[in-house]
Amino acid sequence: MNKGWSHLVGQRNGQTWKIYLNGVLESLSSSGSTGSLSNTEQPEIARLTQTNNNYFNGDLDQAAVYATAITAQAIAEHYALGIGYEEDSYHYQVIRDGVKYYWPMEETSGTSIFSITGFGKEGQFTNTPTLQSPAIFSTLGNSIHFNGSDERINLFSWETLTSATYSIAVKASAISSEQRFLALNNQNPYVMMRYVNASTIGFTMNNTGAVNLYASGIDPTDPIMISGSFKLSGMNYMYLNGALLGAASAPGTGTQPTTLENRIGCSRSNTLFFNGYIDNLAIHDRQLSDAQIRSQWATLRGYASGTYEHTVITDGANAYWPLNDENGATDVFTPVGPYPGTYIGTVSAGASSIVRNGDTSIRLTAFASSGVSIGNRDLFLRSGSHSIEWWMKTSRADDQDVLSKGRAFVNYSEYQTGLNGSGQIRYALSSANTPGGSHVLTTSGAYNDDVVHHVVCRHDNPNNTQHTFVDGVQVASATFSADIYHGTDKVTLGYRTSSGDTNPWGGFLSHVAVYATALSDATIKAHYNKGRPINFPDQSQASYASTVHRRGAFAHYRFAEASTGNNFDSSVGGSQTFNIVRGSATVSAAVNGLITGDDAFGGIRFKNTAIQSNTVAMLHNS
Question: Is the separation of the CB atoms in 159 and 253 below 8 Å?
Answer without folding.
Answer: no
